[in-house]
Structure of S-adenosylmethionine-dependent methyltransferase:
Amino acid sequence: MEANVEISSKPSLNGYVMTGGSGNQSYAKNSSYQRNVIDATKLLIQKAVSEQLHPRNFLALETFYVADLGCSVGPNTFISVQNIIDAVKLKYQSTNDKIPEFQVLFNDHLLNDFNTLFKCLPLNREYYASGVPGSFYSHLFPRASLHFVHTSYSLHWLSCVPKEVITSNKGRIHHLGAGEEVTKAYSRQHAVDFANFLQARAREVVPGGLMVIVLPSRPDGVSHSLISLNIMFDILGSSLMDLAKKGIIDEEKVDAFNIPIHVASPLELEATIKQDGCFSIEKMESLPEVSAAYMYHMHHIPHFVSLTLRATTQELISEHFGEEILDGLFEVFTNKLVEAHKDAKLGLRSNLFLLLKRKEEGIIN
């Protein structure tokens, strides 16, 4: 990709992590929406493995390697991994091949709560488990070592805030409403990061290996202003400005704070995949809406949504403003959500399922 340095600020060495532990405000307790999205992929993963995975291409394979990138603290990662393993076992059984052992590699940033992750490992698991700390925008594993890569609700996080945004996005914490140039900067940063992700995986995934990417998306042609996740961050930014007006935090600190997230469209993703050239797109489709039970909570209990967003942003906010503002901030945010619900301004939620297959040619050294 051109001009990596030109459009990017320095990536965070420790990255952005979800709230650890297993308390009431943890990601483990407040990620049921992400869990519902994972549940919606189960049959798609089973079909993908059945149709696209060919055990005999891997010769007499003793160990099948699965990586879950952006695993956080569980329990969602364990559900994803088990769905994959169940599908692979069915495939081996259908071809009368010997089922290999499974090694699962759980990856997230250095500051991820791996202690909680491994304390919660299923006791009856059918795999060996290892933790691999580091950014998935760089190389993490040996060359041609992975047979199946999975990542869910992680690739919308950027490696850093685009440097143009840091000095030109006053009064906002995201690109919604900030003007075309700021939005384009976020889009360019996402393209660079996604290209780096694909280049790293192209080196690590065996020819014929599969990769499933699940992430929030913006349907082609739909404005960023209609996307629920963008609206949530706009409301969060407004809540921070309310605290600044009350003198609780400095307005300059709000001006210097930006959420490193971009909700890409299928066309954006497809363009980067084709430019990379190492993976074929076997499937790209929108997932069905999450369960009715979750949507009831989301639309009728703003506190539920507030806890979900807090679990994903608390560490980032605490690092910049201090943890003492969190309770007050999310109380304001919850109240604003109530008003947004009354005005039917919660936006569109769309999730994308991507199945990629490593091409036989183009091995990267």
